[in-house]
Structures are given as structure tokens and as C-alpha cells.
Write a structure and sequence with these properties.
The chain is α/β, with parallel strands linked by helices. The chain contains 14 helices and 17 strands. 52% of the residues are buried.
């Protein structure tokens, strides 16, 4: 696609933007014009894409995931367990990851995300069994082939069972190895600026799987390299008890002691913060990734999003690992977050537009990319276009509301940086049947050991 050629995405059925009733114009990977009702574009020579049967959204942004876990969906040994026993059942299986199975797992995850209207995704990869030292490099290559924008985190674990942690020795690394490779992958892959397609963040897994030294040294390194920080926090009451027993304080106090309570950091889950802690998060500009499906499946609890936002905390959405969510569909996550939070807060406080905002502008704030997540002049041309021609939408009124309430799950068109990466509900050049066959075979091999 010629990036110098302007494209008028014309006359959408509906669009998540003010003053763009007749669509928008894209050129050079940016949104250069919104076309209001009754007007024509002022941009000269724009080619037209007829969006008359589409609802147009900013590209959805996924702020928490574990791609490799697509290989262990609905695993019998992990069913009907809460977080800690769930992890203990899965770690031995994840220890069998190979470069080939990881490649297949991440390709499945990112493909599923793209097809759901997701244009930017994070990933939190923290298991490094022997032979998988180049895990982040494998992910970068797969993302480039698919054309999806990524913020990949160099995760880590160095507190194994022998040190009082949960993971077995086979999936952890020592601190020096972790820090050296963190610096390597940032130097090799991290891009800067509004057009960046690949970025790297640093992400020790959780307070119960890494040492205090690694938490502190990672924060220092992130500051030195000017990259973001990510970890799980306040996901379960078990985590609170662990921190109090191991460190003599609550998880947020521990995070602050380690130098993490700042605008560089976004956290997965954030369920068990008290009101004072929420104010501290808001003041520090530390953001939260709300993972509604995972939290429900593991019965972890419910992120208090309204109190968080009132305290100044940015809220994004994450599908979380496919082994806890069992899908990588961000549009479905929007609906799940809407339903969960509507049930918690009631009709007057949570609408379908809130859930869409969390998945777009809120998620952009989580990952430090203000140029994403919004349809406005000067923003990056990352877009998701949905048709309402399925049985599930028949009889709808408001098209935007129908996406959420009727359960949209597959985008018809997806644009990343001004380029179409999904067309007619498919990823050009990707043989889905072959991918499913190879991925399923790799999963069976891992399950059987």
C-alpha cells in the first residue's frame, strides 16, 4: 500500500469519534482529517474506501497477555483451580516449551487478537526453560510477519520453589542472566517515536516469583534505558498474605520500596487495592490493566475500576493468558469488562462506551502511547472496522452499542499504521488451517510430556 496515497474511509455506519460522521482521511500512517456531516474531504486526491456497512473504532489495545499460554487452553489439570494451584499445575507443562512451539503459540495469539480488532498488543513472557533464551526475538519476528504493533516485555522469574517461590527450577533464570538479556533485547528491538511498531518493556513476573534485588535492579535498568515496567500486582488475597509474610508489608508498599511506583509502570489486575492505595497509584500515574475474563475464570475478584478512575488511575483492558482466559479476543474482553463492571456498579456508572474507552484510550495510557487509541487528527491510523451483518446483530438499533451488547467478536477490516493487515475477516497470506493443525500438534506434545 502506497503510504503517500490518502485514503478516505467514507460514510461509516457509525464511528467512535466526534465530528466524523462522513469518516476520516488517512495518509502516511496518520489520521489527517475528520469529515463532518454534510462535508467532503479537503484533502486532495484521496482514494475512497466505502465504509457504509462498517462501524469504525480506534484499533483496540491489549495491555496484558501471555502468548505462549495458547498452547495450554482448557488443560484438565488446571481446571477449577484458583491462581496459585493453577500455576503449580501449569508450570511443569510450560517447562516443555521449545522455540518452535513458542513460535506457533505467539502466532496464534497475535492472529486471534488481530482478527478481533486489536492493533497493538503487549505480551508478558516470563518462562525461560533451557533452549528458549531467544524467546523475545521469536516474538518480534512473528509480530513483524503479521504486521501488528507490539510492546513485548522481557519477563523474568528468579525465585523458584527451593527459594520459597512457586515456579520450578526449570523455568527460572539467575539475576545476572535476566538483566543482561533485558539490556540486549532493548538494544536490539526497542523502537522510539510515534511510528514505533516494536517496543520492549521489562517485567519481573510477580512479587512471589522474583527476588527483591531483581525488582530493584530492573527498575534501575528501566530508568537507565528509558523503557516501561510491568508486573502482576494485587491479583489475589493470597498475594497480599505472601507479601505480608515475606516482606512485612502489602504489595503496593513493596512495589514502592523497590522503586516501581511511578509513571513508567503499569500493573496487571489491581483487584485488592484499598482506597488509600488507589490514591497513591493515581498520584504516581501508575496504570492498571483490567483482565475481566481471567479474573472471573480464576475467581480472583473484580477490579474496582470506577474508584480507580476517580482516584486518577488510567484503566486499560487485557485478555491475559489464554490458559486463564482461554481466548485472545479483545472485542470479547470489552463485552466481558462491560458486563462485569455494570453488574458491580449499576446502570448509571458504567456504559458500553466506558468499556470501549478502556480498550482504546485507557489502554494507550497504560503503555505510554498517547498517539494511539483515538480517532483524531494527528493520531496514528490504527483502526478496526466491524460489520453488523451476522445473525447476532439482526434487529439492532445503535451500531456502537450493538458491538458490545450483541457480542461482536471478529473485525472485517483492520488497519495498522495506515496499512490493511486484516481484509474481509482474514489475515492476508496466513493459512489458518495449517496454523491450527501445527499449533494443535505442538500443544498435544506439550500436554503429553
Amino acid at each position: 500500500m502506497d503510504q503517500t496515497q490518502a485514503i478516505w474511509i467514507r460514510d461509516p455506519l457509525s464511528i467512535l469519534a466526534d465530528g466524523a460522521e462522513r469518516g476520516l482521511v488517512v495518509r502516511g500512517g496518520k489520521i489527517v482529517e475528520l469529515v463532518p456531516r454534510g462535508r467532503e474531504p479537503v484533502t486532495a486526491d484521496a482514494v475512497t474506501y466505502d465504509a457504509g456497512s462498517h462501524v469504525v473504532l480506534p484499533g483496540l489495545i491489549n495491555t496484558h497477555h501471555h502468548f505462549y499460554q495458547t498452547l495450554t487452553r482448557a488443560l484438565p489439570a488446571a481446571l477449577d483451580r484458583e491462581l496459585f494451584p493453577w500455576l503449580q499445575a501449569l508450570y511443569p507443562v510450560w517447562a516443555r516449551l521449545t522455540p518452535e512451539s513458542l513460535h506457533l503459540g505467539v502466532t496464534v495469539a497475535m492472529s486471534e487478537l488481530l482478527l478481533s480488532g486489536c492493533t497493538t498488543t503487549t505480551d508478558h513472557h516470563y518462562v525461560f526453560p533451557a533452549g528458549l533464551e531467544d524467546a523475545v526475538d521469536i516474538e518480534v519476528a512473528a509480530a513483524r510477519r503479521l504486521g501488528i504493533r507490539v510492546l513485548l516485555t522481557r519477563g523474568s522469574m528468579n525465585r523458584s520453589q527451593k527459594d520459597g517461590g512457586l515456579p520450578p527450577d526449570t523455568v527460572v533464570q539467575d539475576e545476572d542472566t535476566i538483566l543482561a538479556d533485558s539490556e540486549r533485547v532493548v538494544a536490539k528491538h526497542h523502537q522510539r517515536g510515534e511510528d514505533a511498531m516494536t517496543q520492549i518493556a521489562l517485567a519481573p513476573c510477580s512479587p512471589f516469583s522474583v527476588t527483591t534485588s531483581l525488582m530493584r535492579e530492573t527498575a534501575t535498568l528501566a530508568d537507565k534505558l528509558d523503557v516501561r515496567l510491568h508486573t502482576h500486582l494485587a491479583e489475589t488475597e493470597d498475594e497480599n498474605k505472601f507479601c505480608e509474610q515475606m516482606h512485612g508489608c502489602r504489595p503496593l508498599d513493596y512495589l514502592e520500596q523497590c522503586g516501581w511506583l511511578n509513571a513508567r509502570t503499569w500493573l496487571a489486575h489491581g483487584i485488592f487495592f484499598n482506597s488509600d492505595e488507589m490514591k497513591r497509584l493515581g498520584k504516581a500515574k501508575t496504570a492498571i490493566s483490567h483482565c475481566a475474563c481471567s479474573n472471573q475464570i480464576l475467581a480472583s475478584g473484580c477490579c474496582p475500576v470506577c474508584e480507580m478512575e476517580e482516584a486518577g488511575v488510567s484503566i486499560g483492558l487485557g485478555v491475559d493468558g489464554s490458559a486463564s482466559n482461554d481466548e485472545s479476543n479483545l472485542m470479547q474482553e470489552v463485552r466481558a469488562a462491560f458486563l462485569l463492571q455494570r453488574a458491580r456498579y449499576g446502570v448509571g456508572r458504567v456504559s458500553h462506551k466506558d468499556a470501549l474507552r478502556w480498550a482504546t484510550k485507557g489502554s494507550a495510557a497504560c503503555i505510554g502511547r498517547p498517539e494511539l487509541g483515538e480517532i483524531a487528527v494527528g493520531k496514528t491510523a490504527d483502526l478496526a472496522l466491524f460489520k453488523l451483518d451476522e445473525l447476532r446483530f439482526s434487529g439492532h438499533g445503535d451500531p456502537l452499542a450493538a458491538l458490545v451488547l450483541c457480542g461482536a467478536h471478529r473485525a472485517d477490516r483492520v488497519m495498522v499504521g495506515g496499512r490493511w493487515v486484516v481484509a474481509d475477516g482474514a489475515i492476508p497470506g496466513l493459512d489458518l488451517s495449517d496454523l491450527i493443525r501445527r499449533h494443535s500438534a505442538a500443544a498435544r506434545a506439550m500436554h503429553q510430556g
